[in-house]
Amino acid sequence: MQRLLEKEASSTPLSVTARRLQEDLGIGRIQGKTLYLSDRNRLEMRELLLARGYSATPLPIKDMSRSDRLAMATPNEKAGGGALKTGRVSMKSLPDKTLNLAGRTLSLPDGCHVDSDWRSVANSIRHDSIMLVENYEVFDQLHQLAFDLPDYCKNPLVIYRGDKTESRLNNVKAFIDASGLPVLAFVDIDPKGLHIALGFPRLIGVVAPAYVDLKATMDSPASARPDLYRLQLPGVGDYLRSMADNSPISDLWELLQQHRTGVVQERWLVAGFKLVLWNASPRS
């Protein structure tokens, strides 16, 4: 991302890294063998780098001392010397609720979260469930969303699914396993998102807009993403087709197949829809 921002690139060849920008972060538009970037996409990349403690442009870190690396805005003074944030998970509460861990009650400001050693809190969670959020922007801006969840999971502990530098996936999986709590998956509504959801134990459903709102989003050329469906289906389609009819994601999978499109969860930050739990037939 730093090199793309340095060049103010409007496009880049569709490498593995470029494809991950689009598929994992929803940044850019894929056409043929090229990833196209708008001014907004470049702004999103800049904000994402700065939010995670990185410089927005490349730095000659190999020639810097550790203190210089820190002063020049790179979060790892060892520059790749080992796994980052071992054992740590990023977590918060739903909007207007408190974070209840280890006998403490915390009211976090909007846009804030706690970075915790999961082993110190896994057995002292005072929430009724865990909500796993796929994308960092949605996790960070959760306070902009409205939720209408069932009483049995109305107060989940919200955690970021993670990336290579924050809330790493192995830590998240270990934390979820140790917690023993039911899991709500808040993921992109596309084949890959549903595949991610099915990979977690004790899954009780997927968080998304109600049927009418989600269907309208999939019907609209302005918000539907048929490219996600087309590109992701070959890798996970067989797995999704093999799931049980009573799976918590079966209704969403049926809707995806009918529309042959997907929707990224960042869409809900601007749509204003209430988000519900899909686990049976939330078609209202």
Describe it for me?
- This protein is an alpha/beta fold.
- The chain folds into two domains: 2-71, no CATH class; 88-278, Dna Topoisomerase Vi A Subunit, Chain: A, domain 2 (3-Layer(aba) Sandwich), CATH 3.40.1360.
- The protein is 35% helix and 18% strand.
- The protein has eleven helices and 13 strands.
- The strands form three sheets. An eight-stranded mixed sheet has the order 7-4-10-8-11-12-13-9. It has a three-stranded antiparallel sheet with strand order 1-3-2, with helices on one face.
- Helix 7 (191-198) packs parallel to helix 9 (226-241).
- The longest helix is centred in the last third of the chain and has 16 residues, at 226-241.
- It is globular and about 50 Å long.
Quick structural gist:
The protein is α/β, with parallel strands linked by helices and 284 residues long. It is 35% helix and 18% strand.
* Residues in helices, as a percent range: 25-40%
- The helix tally amounts to 11
> What is the H-and-E element order?
HEHEEHHEEEEEHEEHEHEHHHHE
What low-confidence regions span 5 or more consecutive residues with pLDDT below 50?
Answer: 72-83
Structural class: alpha/beta
Average pLDDT rating: 86
Number of DSSP-assigned strands: 13
CATH fold description of the largest domain = Dna Topoisomerase Vi A Subunit, Chain: A, domain 2
At CATH's second level, what is the architecture of the largest domain?
3-Layer(aba) Sandwich
What is the CA-CA span between the terminal residues? Answer: 41 Å
CATH class of the largest domain: Alpha Beta
Strand order of the largest sheet: 7-4-10-8-11-12-13-9
Shape: globular
**Total tally of structural domains:** 2
> What kind of sheet is the major sheet?
8 strands, mixed
Over the alpha carbons, how many angstroms does the gyration radius reach? 19 Å
**How much of the polypeptide forms β-strand, as a percent range?**
15-25%
